[in-house]
Amino acid sequence: MADLLRFGLIGCGAQGRYLSEALAMTERAELVACADPKAEAAEAAVQLCGYRQAYDDYWKMLEQEDLDAVIVATIHDQLFPAALAAVESGKHVFVEKPMALCAEDGRTLTKTAREAKLKLMVGYTLRFMPERILLKRLLEQGAIGEVAHIGAGQLIGGMGGWLGEKAHGGGPLYYIGSHVIDNVLWISGKRARRVYSEVTWKDGSDVEAGVQLTIRFEDDSTAMVCTSQRLGGRYGWLDVMGTGGRMRTEWEKTELWIQSNSIPEYQYLTSVNVPTMANLPPVPANAVARVSGSAYIRMWMGEFDDFTRAIIEDRDPAVTGEDGVACLEVIDAVFKSAKAGMPVETAG
What we know:
Elements: E1 5-10, H1 14-25, E2 29-35, H2 39-49, E3 53-55, H3 58-64, E4 69-72, H4 76-88, E5 92-96, H5 103-115, E6 120-123, H6 130-140, E7 147-155, H7 172-188, E8 192-201, E9 208-217, E10 222-228, E11 235-242, E12 245-250, E13 255-260, E14 270-273, H8 297-313, H9 321-340, E15 344-345
Parallel strand pairs: 1-2, 1-4, 2-3, 4-5, 5-6, 7-10
Antiparallel strand pairs: 7-11, 8-9, 8-15, 9-10, 11-12, 12-13, 13-14
């Protein structure tokens, strides 16, 4: 393998360009080719991100270019077929969440990648928020004992365009709810055993306006999760309550609140201000976020630092295909429970 990993991009919209910029900041990648059925989007990725060649069909790109890995950043219903095509052509794949629209497809993609000995990473960015990295580390050190209950949510305003269309995987559950479900599973470290949900539907639409769900894990700990497009803004939270204390973080905030029975300095509820540069790989001195201009660039870079290292070191990435499938099993159960009006077992 060459010193630089040769990358392609499938899906050249804003998110694909943001991720490409973050990947470039790792200084381990060569941006070779990009593909999008919209010529203007592919040309923007060439001009803004530095890809050398643009295609209107990702199959052509996969057949004609010598690539090590591919970013898949399409709309939700196209993630699975595009990622599967990339894996079947022998490429490592970073696929945006939710990776597929059902657990069965997620399993197919994961199994295919495993059998081909290729790395598959799912883009669950919230795992790379500095304060949530610290929360996870403190949890692993026993700061609040055993996890007994988790409360979490991700809320935004009304969703339009393809995000308002069921056929394309629209609605808040796939878009932002998948992020918080993955966070809950990551923090719990246990398999979700049973799910009960209440879903409200957006007027005049076949996508959900909001979802409330409970998860019972294999050790009988529980989680309550909320996701919605009914908020007049953006808000998210993660509360973790244990046998020896509790911790809390909020979306796009740098504070970690902690009360610990085992750490003297946190005997009383304490706010820890976590620097935005903490717990993530250093950014090259000459790096400038010209494309995204977003605070998320640090977290996206953290994702790609891990993904490229996973390829080079021949290890699993931080967020595996199996992790993505576990999240989709909960989402499948949410819709089944809402239809049945009762709790359902997950398929895991």
